[in-house]
Design brief:
Length: 151
C-alpha cells in the first residue's frame, strides 16, 4: 500500500469511495455524500489553518483503498487534525486503516499529537480506540512519543 497525494484524476474514484462510505457521511453530517463533497475538500480548513497545511491523501494498492483529509501543524506545530479517514466498507477490518496510520506516521514524522473530531459513527470510534486514541468529549486524541532517531 502506498499513501500519495490526491490528484484531479482521482476524483471519480474518490466519489465512488464517498458513496461507498455513505454510512460514515450519514453519521458525521446527517446526509449522504454528494458530488460537491470532493471539491469542497480543497476549501475546508479549520480556523487558523493555512492551505499549505492541508493534505488530501489517497491510499492505493491496485486500486484506491482509502482516503485521508488532514491538516498538519494545526492547531500547533507537531499536531495533526484528521478531518476524515475513509476505507471502503468491504475492506474494513482487514488492517488497511492501521497500515494507513503507519504510512501517515512515516510521512509526517514530526507529528506528536493527532486529533480527530468524534461523530456518531461507532465503527470509526472503535477503530480510534483500538489505535490508542483517548476519546475526550468531541475529540479523540493520540499522543505520539517523539522519535529519537529523527524518523
Amino acid at each position: 500500500m502506498t499513501l500519495r497525494d490526491f490528484t484531479p484524476a482521482d476524483e471519480p474514484a474518490v466519489l465512488a469511495l464517498f458513496a461507498d462510505c455513505d454510512d460514515w457521511f450519514q453519521a458525521a453530517t446527517g446526509h449522504p455524500s454528494g458530488p460537491g463533497d470532493v471539491q469542497s475538500l480543497f476549501y475546508a480548513l479549520p480556523e487558523g489553518a493555512a492551505f499549505e497545511q492541508k493534505h488530501l491523501l489517497v491510499a492505493q494498492a491496485q486500486d484506491m483503498i482509502g482516503f485521508v483529509d488532514l491538516v498538519v501543524d494545526h492547531p500547533a506545530p507537531g499536531h495533526a487534525d484528521i478531518r476524515f479517514f475513509l476505507v471502503p466498507k468491504d475492506l474494513r477490518r482487514w488492517g488497511i486503516g492501521r497500515e494507513m496510520a503507519k504510512a501517515l506516521s512515516e510521512r509526517f514524522p514530526d507529528v506528536t499529537r493527532v486529533q480527530v473530531r468524534l461523530d456518531d459513527f461507532k465503527p470509526g470510534n472503535e477503530f480510534l480506540k483500538a489505535m490508542g486514541f483517548v476519546l475526550n468529549g468531541q475529540r479523540a486524541v493520540l499522543e505520539i512519543a517523539p522519535r529519537s532517531d529523527g524518523r
